Amino acid sequence: MRVIKCIFMIIGTAILMGGCITPYTPEIRESVEIMVINGLITDREGYQYVEVARSSAVGNDESLLPVSDCIVEVQDDRGGIFSFTEADPGIYASWMTAQDLVPGTEYKLTVTTVEGRQYHSEFEELLPCPPIDSIIWEVRDMPTTDPNITYEGVQFHIATDATGNYANNYRWELEETWEYHAAYSIWGYFDGSISFGVFPSDSLRICWNTKRINDFFTYSTRNLSSNQITQFPINYISNQTDKLKIKYSLMVKQYSLTETAYELWKILEGQSKQSGELYATQPVRISGNITSLENPAETVLGFFSASSATEKRIILSPQVSFLEAPYCLPYGLSGDSLMDFLSQISPYYYPVYLYDEGGLSPTFDYADQACFDCRMLGGTTERPDFWR
Amino acid sequence: MGKKLYTVSIILWYFLSTSISTAQGPVISGDYTDLPFEVFVQEVEKQIPIRFVYLETWMEDVFITAKGDNLDLLEVLSDQLKGTGLNFQYDQENRIFITPGISIVTDLPDYAQEDRMVDTIRRDEQVNGLTQAEKIYMEGRKKGDISTLTIGTVSDLKNQKEAVISGEIINTETGEPLIGATIYIEELSRGSVTDLYGHFTLSIRPGRYTARFNCLGMEELQYNLNVLSEGKLAIEMSNKLYPIDEITVRSDGYDQVRGIEMGFSQISVKSIKEIPVVMGEMDVLKVVQMLPGVQNTGEGSSGMNVRGSAADQNMYLINNIPVYNTSHLFGFFSAFNPDIIRDFSFYKSNLPASYGGKLASVMDISSRQGNNKRYTARGGISPITAHIAVEGPIKKDKSSFVLSGRSTYSDWILTRMEDPDLRASSANFYDLAGGISMRPNEKNLVKVFGYYSFDRFSLASTNRYEYANAGGSLNWRREYSSRLNSNVSAVFSQYSFGHEDNTVPLEAYQHDYRINHNELKSDFDWLPGGKHKIVFGGNLILYDLNRGKVLPYGEESSREHLSLGKESGLEGALHIADKYRISDRIIVYGGLRYSLFSYLGPQSVYLYEPGNPPDPNYITDTLSFSSGQVVKTYSGPELRTAITFLTGSNNSLKLSYNRTRQYLFMLSNTIAISPTHQWKLSDYHIKPPFADQFSLGFYEDLIRQDINLSAEVYYKLLNNIVEYKDGADFISSPTTETEVLQGKQKAYGIELMLKKNTGKLTGWLTYTWSRSIVNVNEKRYPSNYDIPHSVNTVLNYRLNRRFSFSSNIVYHTGRPATYPISVFYLDDRKYIYYSDRNAYRIPDYFRMDLSFNVEGNLKSRKLAHSYWMLSVYNLTGRKNAYSVFFEVDGKNIQGYKMSVFGQPIITLSWNFKFGNYASD
């Protein structure tokens, strides 16, 4: 229940303004390292992964603490045993074939550490997953704290018809890809001397960036009259990013969850984005379905589950207004003054790209590198296969 | 200041006999002709209990001639002694003094009294003479205003060991009874307190006493009492015109040293009007939260935790109507309009046996009864609300009415909000209350009272809330004799809410909830004689709950229709208690309440596999109960005992043990109380909680009660408390037992209080040390409201009668909280692992408020009086944490602190009333 972020602001801040939520770093007296074991078996033929790590203390260096050299095994209820080998520190992988991954099969994970401590999960059934019906999007305005400014953007919804023999609980992982363009095409560059026409036009201007959305969504249809998700809101992209400028694609992966897994993910999700709202509940400790053989009381974080995965992709070019990025304004130098300036630039910044300002005779100016080379903003010039 | 305007008047009623001590004087019958005086005296002394005092030599020549029945003896004497040079004087002890020349002054003279009845003979010449004599007498030796009240009759004197005096204390100006006024007999070091109807009773030996009458904001009265036999008194007290004492927030209208009560406060609204308030809105609940042992559930919230108990363990009564949600605007204001409240009593330790149903405390609010002498009104405006109350007589001195209303105009603030969600929100609330009180005759008092409060709040078109309290009560007090009276009440109360949640249109829902409380209640006060005071009675409550249906809301919603079900239950209790004065130093209170609760059908109950927790997976059977069939019954005694030892003339030691039971609880897994929290009855699976509390206290008064000191220690053990499973959800399943856990809780602490009642500087200072630990499923953790240290200061400094400063200073340890102690990654995403439950605390709380009050002019004859109050809440602007929470922001965990009032809040409010400064 999302209630009121700060109902008291009604009066408190209306009169005197001033934020009611301020950053605060409490002193944490304790630090614990807890085993974290996480794995998901999907029905896709290929590598299945299990992560083994330890939690780290809150504070300075909250990095992942991988646990290496474990013996990791998954067994199914038909007698199959799959050994996992460490692919990256703390990440264990095993290739499983389609025959090994049939919905209805149950899997159990066993992890033995170098010290000989053994952890195991229960048998988890590989749940079937219904196909995603559609990804729906609409242009929607988002009000801001300034009543005169409204952001434009796109809200995505998901629809899945799970009527039939499917679970009630779903989890979606999102991956987004967007095409974006650098402000200028390269007409030449300077790296001590000026060269022209070396790059084919647009070679560094058009990029695609693909990112996993670091936010996932779970939903249960248990409160609905039918196991049918007609419109569940997922992410929102506003025009404060350039993602929607040219073309945008969203890929949604859908997994089925057991009741316990759903509860776990839902609570974890809620606890990593608390709102401090008035009627908030206290955070709680939650551990998964993995236990220590020697010490059943030991807390083990993470979850081992198995689910079929279905996915769907959508590509769109919405009509959304944008502000032009101000940092790509040209420096306003040309001719001799440009040459003088370029000669003073440290070779560290080479190549300095130049563009043609247009007009009858070529005059050149330069801007920041990122205004020419779209890769500087994180993308790649390689066109994804699905891009149409 | 100028002259004191005492308008004290006393009326003595003689109900029981045509006593000789009436103005008529003693009466004789007979036929006498020239009877020698000595023989006449013998005749008279045979007929009536009267004694003559004279010297025989003076009377030798006096003969009496008189004839008839019902002769006025004094008239006879007056006639017959004419011309003899003899005077006579009749005194209150039925003696007649005969003296030659001047007459004896048998009675001390009165000046301030005009219409009191005194038993002196009025013979013109003598009275005139006396007056002169008196004047001289008075100049030399100021006698004061102490006058004598005679109670009862001489004829009943002989066969009386104990006389029961009963009476009523009312406000001269409004005719309203004064609650909590005290009568104190100095010689006996004991007294009595008036009840809800302004009545008191006291059992004492016949004799002469000095009695002091006290009431908050009223002039103290002192009388000599001449108690002959049982009888009645009606005392009218007038408002104190010099309110220097009145600014004191006197939380005791009673004598803290001599009373049996512990952890008890009685506060009149008049006495707290100068306490600084947030947003200029006086709030009785906020005042209670300044008392030791009481913590609010969060800043700006009206819920409170009393002595380490959950917020649903407090009973709020307004004229016997239980109020199930005491908040307006999500707890920002309390649902009680201060205009209609006269005073309230607050019990947190030993509860009288007549109260029950909640574990931690009772807040018993009495409304104004209405002025039965003239029409008047009061009201005020603040930045958020406007409020008004009107009252007046229906039939003068017999019946009166009072009506109040309050409403908000807070929407203007919302439209100025920064937060887009709040900007698109709207809030609305109002409350109405009204009462009629009738006194058809001296023996009966009937009061009818109705109450309604309503709130509507919509948040950014995604959430709409509506909630309302409605209630009515009919209270009838009847006096059977001076020793026995009864209070009978019929009470109805309803709380209902509606909630529409459209956050996710797919599962948008609406939910309506309602609880009805129907109660019949009857209490008797009985003075059997001796030093006992017995209260007995019973009550019966029928609960009728409709937990409502969760229905899809809007076209897009495919929410499943779900009925949370209906419930009904019957709660009954019988109680008897005796307050017994063993000696002048020891008072004991022994009370027993026996309560019984039946959970009634129609109901379907799931049975679960034994040995397993109630979980839908373990359902083995379903029991069906038809309408009215008893599903489950819980019952048990509730012992209420207390003892007071007067260790000295100004100090006492008290000890009490108390058990309380509670048959309904609130489904709430949040810290603050939300309007959508449902009340739920104990049922087949969920056992009713009960609590045992032991308290020990020491009380001392210094400087003639100007300073009160108290120290109380308590230890409280709660059983079957209801806690909630992680992620509990109360609207997705009708089976509550699958969402709750029951356990134990203990709370203990020490509360110190220093209070100054009179002078320019008044107020109180409290310190509380307390703990509250929950133990559920072998897991122990501090409760959400475990606040070890708490200091509250309420001060009022009066420059003069028109200008005063008030200040609150509040400090307490931060509330317990659960903090991240470790981080981990799943699928490259960072998650938080939290500490043990409530292992940490949010930052300490500190707040200082200041208010400056300006009263209108002090003319005594004027139509209306007004006053301004400028208050600054949170003067230092400290950003006190309401909560601390964490967000995983990209790769980092960021902690945040939410403050409700991060700035000083300055408000100006204006209030008025008809009448002058001192009008009530």
Tag the structure with descriptive keywords:
heterodimer, A: 388 residues, mainly beta, twelve-stranded mixed sheet, five-stranded antiparallel sheet, 26 strands, 8% helix, 41% strand, globular, disordered N terminus, B: 920 residues, 22-stranded antiparallel β-barrel, five-stranded mixed sheet, 7 helices, 6% helix, 53% strand, elongated
Compose a concise summary of this entry.
By secondary structure, chain A is mainly β. In chain A, 8% of the residues lie in helices and 41% in strands. Chain A contains three helices and 26 strands.
Mean pLDDT of chain B: 83
Give the biggest sheet of chain B: 22 strands, antiparallel, barrel
Apparent shape of chain B: elongated
How much beta of chain A, percentage-wise?
A: 35-45%
The value of Rg of chain B in angstroms is 32 Å
What assembly state would you assign to the polypeptide chains in this entry?
A: heterodimer
Identify the biggest protein-protein contact and residues per side. A-B, 86 and 101 residues
How many runs of DSSP E, i.e. beta strands of chain A?
Answer: 26
Counting helices, strands and paired strands, the structural category of chain A is mainly beta
Q: What is the general shape of chain A? A: globular
Count up the helices of chain B. Answer: 7
Radius of gyration of chain A, taken over Cα atoms and rounded to an integer in Å: 26 Å
Our estimate of the beta-strand percent of chain B is: over 45%
Share of helix among residues of chain A? under 10%
Descriptive overview:
The complex is a heterodimer of chains A (388) and B (920). Chain A has 388 residues and is mainly beta. Chain A has three helices and 26 strands. Chain A has helices at residues 9-16, 259-272, 335-344; strands spanning 21-23, 35-42, 46-54, 56-57, 65-66, 71-76, 81-88, 91-96, 106-112, 118-121, 124-125, 132-143, 150-161, 169-181, 188-190, 194-196, 206-212, 217-220, 228-238, 247-257, 290-292, 300-301, 304-307, 309-316, 352-356, 364-366. In chain A, a hairpin with a 6-residue loop joins strand 12 (132-143) and strand 13. The longest helix of chain A has 14 residues, at 259-272. Chain A is globular and about 80 Å long. Chain B has 920 residues and is mostly beta strands. Helix content of chain B is 6%, strand content 53%. Chain B has a 22-stranded antiparallel β-barrel. In chain B, strands 7-13-12-9-10 form a five-stranded mixed sheet, with no helix packed on it. In chain B, strands 15-22-23-18-19 form a five-stranded mixed sheet, with no helix packed on it. In chain B, a hairpin with an 8-residue loop joins strand 54 and strand 55. Chain B starts with 9 loop residues before the first strand and ends in a 6-residue tail after the last strand. Strand 1 of chain A pairs antiparallel with strand 57 (892-898) of chain B, so a sheet runs across the interface.
